[in-house]
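Hello,

Our lab assistant flagged a job as stuck in the queue for most of the afternoon. It eventually completed. Since we weren't sure the result was trustworthy after the delay, we are filing this so someone can double-check. Below is the sequence as submitted and the structure that was eventually returned. Let us know if re-running is recommended.
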Amino acid sequence: MAHAATKRVVCWVSAAAPCAAGASQATSSVTGAAKPPVGAFTRKRLRQKKSRRLCRPATRPSTPEHASLPPSQIVPRLADKGQYLASESSFYRVLKEHGQVNRRGKAQLPKKVAAPQAWVAYGANQVWSWDITYLPGTVRGQFMRLYMVLDVFSRMIVGWEVHWEESAENGSTLIGKACLSQGVRQDQLALHSDNGSPMKGATMLATLQKLGVVPSFSRPSVSDDNPYSEALFRTLKFTPAYPRKRFEDLEQARAWVHEFVTWYNRQHQHSGIQFVTPEQRHAGHDKGILHKRKEVYGAAKCSKPSR
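-- returned structure --
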């Protein structure tokens, strides 16, 4: 009886708390190695058992209605039958552990599109941006095409043309004229645009290669990768001087765009370049203007120190 009582006490102690070194040796001599109680599961075995239960609704042949459903639909369908196995996140975790999280039907994995190379302009004629916008004609549904090239550093319009058609030939001619007027050298300039057909046409790419201009394009299906040209077109179409009526012909459209470009480059104090004009920034006169402006602000501040 004493031996049996000792055996029961030692088993209880070894299961409830860690034993010292001496107690461990005593346990081995009296009862042998300590064993977990019958029917007890370790955490790993419990997790495996729960994983098998969660995988059954999506993989068991007797439940084919769940085979092509995501956990977001399996959970409420089981709840309608009075069953709850786990949350959606638990379903996804277990299915991922068993390699069963796959695209259903013909859906393909999302493609990772690499971001385009970032161009930084530290001076004029280093990075240009260009695009094409519509100018409405007198006939409804008929539009003229306005081509514009913008210097990213100075925001100055360095080239523009108006045509009825949209083509790579017109674009390449415009870029050639702009490079000539600005004295662009080989391997000096990067030209950014969207993925339109005039921008990627063979004539345009051949012209850029001949001029030594590096082409840059927006990412596919990304609408805000050419923001400077888009902002310029918004300024153009929302300026108070924009005509309320449609343009009658190319001559009228070209005359109005010429007036706009003159105002924009020489008079418009651009908020993106600290409210100097694009022409002043392009010529490098902005530093002196901003320095004078700072002195005026400083003198006004000193004249009224109480404020």
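-- support follow-up --
The delay was a queue issue, not a problem with the job. The result is valid. Confidence is low (pLDDT under 50) at residues 1-32. DSSP finds twelve helices and five strands in the chain.
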